[in-house]
Amino acid sequence: MKGGRSTYFREFNAIELQNTFYRNVSSETLEKYRKEAPAGFEFVVKAWQAITHPISSPTWKKAGKIPELGDPCGLGYLRPTPENFRAWDLILGECRLLDSRLVVIQTPPSFSCSEKTKSDMIAFLSKIERSSLTLGWEPRGDWNRRPDEIGRICERLSLVHIVDPFRRLPAFESETVYFRLHGISDGETSYKYKYTDADLSRLTSIISTYPESKKIYVMFNNMSMGEDALRFKNMMKL
């Protein structure tokens, strides 16, 4: 979006930070974000891949280096390892600096729906300190063919099921609704998709089915995200 952060802060009331996924962001940078943002502006932190993605994941190439948290093989897949608990403490520190209310946990397709992954996930997320944070989970891969399993995990761990509403609706009802829009096209072209007015009208219809008591986040994650989000905001008259 033209104008950078200042324009974004003026036009919107929340942002999902992507750079926190690739690496632990310095306190100086986060304090700068918080200082620049107006009162009441909300920062949603996308959880560092250290807790979700093993070092074999190609996303680590973008990070540039593997963090020194212990044994690198202990990172990822929400396992209850010392390395993942140390990584979570750093994520929690980021949230505190930003006064964040919500963390997005995105698991990779290789984090498959199995008894082992479910057991690890429960053991890890049951033990971490949450403070007053809401945890949102965006599962990928074969989990999305098992909404029943997603619903059970979300209920047990008090998680918000994060979805793209053009593909599916949440498998578990919570007080918070979190939509991440990845584009309607398939495959690699999805990120390049620009939402049409008809798409955005459909999105407003989906949102209208929820009671006003729900806190609803709508985050665009496509190439024209700023422009599409602004058009959607104007359509909703927010």
How would you explain this protein's 3D organization?
This protein has 238 residues and is of the alpha/beta class. The protein has two domains: 1-162, Protein of unknown function UPF0759 (TIM Barrel, Alpha-Beta Barrel); 166-238, no CATH class. Helices cover 39% and strands 14% of the residues. It has nine helices and seven strands; from the N terminus they run H-E-H-H-E-H-H-E-H-E-H-E-E-H-E-H. The protein has helices spanning 4-11, 19-22, 27-36, 59-63, 82-98, 115-127, 147-157, 197-208, 225-236; strands spanning 14-17, 42-46, 102-106, 134-138, 159-161, 176-181, 215-220. The strands form two sheets. A five-stranded parallel β-sheet has the order 1-2-3-4-5. A two-stranded parallel sheet has the order 6-7. Helix 6 links the parallel strand 3 (102-106) and strand 4. Helix 8 packs across helix 9 (225-236). The longest helix has 17 residues, at 82-98. The mean pLDDT is 94.
What does the secondary structure layout of this molecule look like, with pairings?
Blueprint lengths: L3 H8 L2 E4 L1 H4 L4 H10 L5 E5 L12 H5 L18 H17 L3 E5 L8 H13 L6 E5 L8 H11 L1 E3 L14 E6 L15 H12 L6 E6 L4 H12 L2
Helix pairs in contact: 8-9
